Amino acid sequence: MNFDPLSYPYTSQRRLVYGRKGMVASSQPLAAQAGLEMLRRGGNAIDAAIATAACLTVVEPTGNGIGSDAFAIVYKDKKIYGLNSSGPAPFGISREALQERGCHKVPKFGVLPVTVPGAPAAWAALSKRFGRLSFAELLAPAIFYAQDGYPVSPVISHLWKQAMAVYQKENLPEMAEWFHIFAPGGKTPAAGELWRSPDHAKTLQLIAETEARAFYEGELAEKIEAFVTAHGGYLTKKDLCSFAPAWVDPVRTEYRGFDIWELPPNGQGLVVLMALNILRPFSLADKPAPERLHLQIEAIKLALTDGLAHITDPRSMKVPVDWLLSESYARKRRQEIGAKAALPAPGNLPAGGTVYLAAADGEGNMVSFIQSNFAGFGSGVVIPGTGISLQNRGNSFSLDEGASNVLRPGKRTYHTIIPGFITQNNEAVGPFGIMGGYVQPQAHVQFLTNLLDMHDNPQAALDAPRWQWIMEKKIKVEHHFPTALLAALQKKGHEIEICSPDDTTFGRGQAIFRDAHGVLLGATEPRTDGGIGVL
Question: Which sequence positions are flagged as catalytic?
Answer without folding.
Answer: 354
